[in-house]
């Protein structure tokens, strides 16, 4: 009843606002009681309007009377079209546009009723752009034309910039102008409006001609069937003037396809509790559409759901309310952010002023500091000039003395350098001779060691041969001794190889020392000539007398007796360790 009351209030609101204020309540109440089949109470009406008559939505105006004495008594046993036509008659003349429209007054009435169905539940009544788009799409689909989304988007943008939505009269003018039905004749537009009106207002889910089999004479007769949420009515023709019967639908009904029989095709059966109805559609497509539509209606009755278009309208309304709530929440958050931002701006302004004051103080202090710095720089500049003059005089004197000293020192350095080079040449010659003697001694000792090692190896080899001929009882012990001696032999061989390498290195060192000695002798001779030629004061330094050298198979030895004894001790120590 709440949904019915809201639908009635929208039409009543249009009628009430179109009437004169002094007679609107009484005239409208009488007409409402007539079309809604509600008993009229003139006494209650006069009592209610005795003091004031302030309008349809005031607490003490017409609304309290309308709710209490009319709407609460409505039972639903009235003609909705007749009720809407009465309200339309009261308001159309005053509000309908005088400019020529492409739709008839009857079509304008149907658009007005559709507006009341799709408009928002707040006053003054408007239809939002989303519902306008829904309605225009339905009309375009009913006309068999293509939907122009881009054209509507431009219209929607222009509409949103000026207002929230359209009134009923704006909607009638929009559809009547043919803006979204270009290329369609008046009859096509009228049929589309009638089809949408039947679906949304009269709850016509499907309609069309089909053949129905009679219950008594069993003959087939063409009828105009109209499917609504809980009933299927059939008429002689589509003008709905001669009604022949109803098929009451509930959750227990069912519909099923039948095979072709008796020359009839595309048959289906509607089963109800009291009787069944055999119906023949014009083709298989129509048959399937009717079966599906009837089955959907029965399923909705079983689930207790409203018709699809009403459920869709409720979902769209809930979605808009949700989006509106989200938008309001977003606006609230934006306001909070804006308030926080303003507070931050104030804080930043305070900080900025503090920084400006601090900057002014710092600038003043910087100015004083710069002034003091300039005074100090002037004073230091004078002192610096005086110091520069004194330093310049001292530098001139120092430069003169330095020149004299440099000439003297240059002479001394030249003499020292010549003496140093001579000393180095003599040292090189002496060192070369010593290295030569050392290499010769080393070569002799290496040869002796090599001979001793060879003799020792021969001896070990003989001992090994003798050891092999011993008895079996001593064989294990001799084997151990043989292993030890073999290890010693290997160590001796390694030492022999090492001595061979050292002998080769000694020969190489000898060649190098010989070359150095020749170079030193040449350098000594050269420097002797230079010194005698330069001064004539330095006497030539000759190498001292040489001690007697050891003689080897290859010539004079390169070692002294002391170095040879030292090497013998070292070799004996290594030999003892290896054994």
UniProtKB/TrEMBL annotation:
PROSITE patterns: PH_DOMAIN. Pfam families: EF-hand_SWAP70_N, PH. GO terms for molecular function: DNA binding. InterPro entries: EF-hand_SWAP70_N, PH-like_dom_sf, PH_domain, PH_SWAP70. Residues 309-530 form a coiled coil. One of its GO terms (cellular component) is nucleus. Its main location: membrane. Gene3D superfamilies: Pleckstrin-homology domain (PH domain)/Phosphotyrosine-binding domain (PTB). Keywords: Cell membrane, Cell projection, Coiled coil, Cytoplasm, DNA-binding, Membrane, Nucleus, Phosphoprotein. It is found in: Cell membrane; Cell projection, Lamellipodium; Cytoplasm; Nucleus. Residues 203-299 form the PH domain. The SWAP complex consists of NPM1, NCL, PARP1 and SWAP70. PANTHER family: SWAP-70 RECOMBINASE (PTHR14383), SWITCH-ASSOCIATED PROTEIN 70 (PTHR14383:SF6). Phosphatidylinositol 3,4,5-trisphosphate-dependent guanine nucleotide exchange factor (GEF) which, independently of RAS, transduces signals from tyrosine kinase receptors to RAC. It also mediates signaling of membrane ruffling. Regulates the actin cytoskeleton as an effector or adapter protein in response to agonist stimulated phosphatidylinositol (3,4)-bisphosphate production and cell protrusion. This is Switch-associated protein 70. It comes from Centropus bengalensis (lesser coucal).
């Amino acid at each position: 009843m709440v949904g019915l009351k809201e639908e009635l209030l929208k039409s009543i609101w249009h009628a009430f606002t179109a009437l004169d204020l002094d007679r609107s309540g009484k005239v409208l109440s009488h007409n409402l009681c007539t079309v809604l089949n509600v008993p009229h109470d003139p006494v209650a009406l006069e009592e209610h309007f005795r003091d004031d008559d302030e309008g349809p939505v005031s607490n003490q105006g017409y609304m309290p009377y309308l709710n209490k004495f009319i709407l609460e008594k409505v039972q639903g046993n009235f003609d909705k079209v007749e009720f809407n036509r009465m309200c339309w008659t009261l308001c159309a003349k005053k509000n309908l546009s005088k400019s020529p429209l492409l739709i008839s007054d009857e079509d304008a009435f149907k658009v007005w009723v559709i507006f009341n169905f799709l408009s928002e539940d707040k006053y003054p009544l408007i239809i939002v752009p989303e519902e306008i788009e829904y309605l225009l799409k339905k009309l375009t689909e009913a006309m068999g034309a293509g939907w122009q989304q881009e054209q509507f988007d431009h219209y929607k943008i222009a509409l949103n910039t000026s207002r929230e939505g359209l009134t009923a009269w704006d909607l009638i003018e929009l559809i009547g102008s043919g803006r979204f039905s270009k290329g369609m004749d008046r009859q096509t537009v009228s049929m589309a409006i009638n089809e949408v009106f039947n679906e949304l207002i009269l709850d016509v889910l499907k309609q069309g001609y089909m053949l129905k089999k009679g219950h008594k004479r069993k003959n087939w007769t063409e009828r105009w069937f109209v499917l609504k949420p809980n009933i299927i009515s059939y008429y002689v023709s589509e003008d709905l003037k001669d009604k022949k019967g109803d098929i009451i639908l509930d959750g227990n009904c069912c519909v099923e396809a039948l095979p072709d029989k008796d020359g009839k095709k595309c048959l289906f059966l509607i089963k109800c509790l009291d009787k069944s109805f055999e119906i023949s559609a014009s083709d298989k497509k129509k048959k399937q559409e009717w079966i599906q539509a009837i089955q959907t209606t029965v399923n909705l009755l079983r689930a207790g759901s409203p018709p699809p278009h009403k459920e869709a309208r409720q979902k769209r309304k809930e979605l808009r309310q949700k989006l509106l709530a989200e938008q309001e929440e977003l606006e609230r958050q934006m306001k909070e952010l804006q308030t926080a931002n303003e507070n931050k701006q104030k804080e930043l302004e305070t900080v900025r002023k503090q920084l400006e004051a601090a900057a002014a103080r710092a600038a003043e202090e910087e100015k004083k500091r710069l002034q003091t710095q300039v005074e100090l720089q002037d004073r230091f500049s004078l002192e610096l000039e005086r110091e520069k003059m004194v330093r310049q005089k001292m530098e001139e004197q120092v430069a003169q003395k330095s020149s004299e000293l440099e000439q003297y020192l240059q002479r001394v350095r030249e003499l020292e350098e010549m003496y140093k080079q001579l000393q180095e040449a003599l040292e090189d010659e002496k060192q070369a001779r010593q290295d030569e003697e050392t290499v010769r001694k080393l070569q002799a000792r290496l040869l002796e060691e090599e001979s001793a090692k060879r003799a020792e190896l021969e001896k070990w080899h003989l001992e090994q041969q003798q050891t092999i001929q011993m008895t079996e009882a001593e064989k294990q012990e001799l084997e151990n001794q043989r292993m030890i001696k073999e290890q010693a032999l290997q160590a001796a061989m390694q030492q022999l190889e090492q001595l061979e390498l050292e002998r080769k290195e000694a020969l190489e060192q000898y060649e190098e020392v010989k070359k150095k000695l020749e170079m030193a002798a040449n350098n000594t001779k050269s420097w002797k000539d230079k010194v005698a030629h330069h001064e004539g004061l330095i006497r030539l330094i000759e190498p001292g007398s040489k001690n007697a050298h050891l003689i080897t198979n290859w010539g004079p030895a390169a070692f002294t007796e002391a170095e040879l004894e030292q090497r013998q001790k070292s070799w004996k120590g290594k030999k003892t360790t290896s054994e």
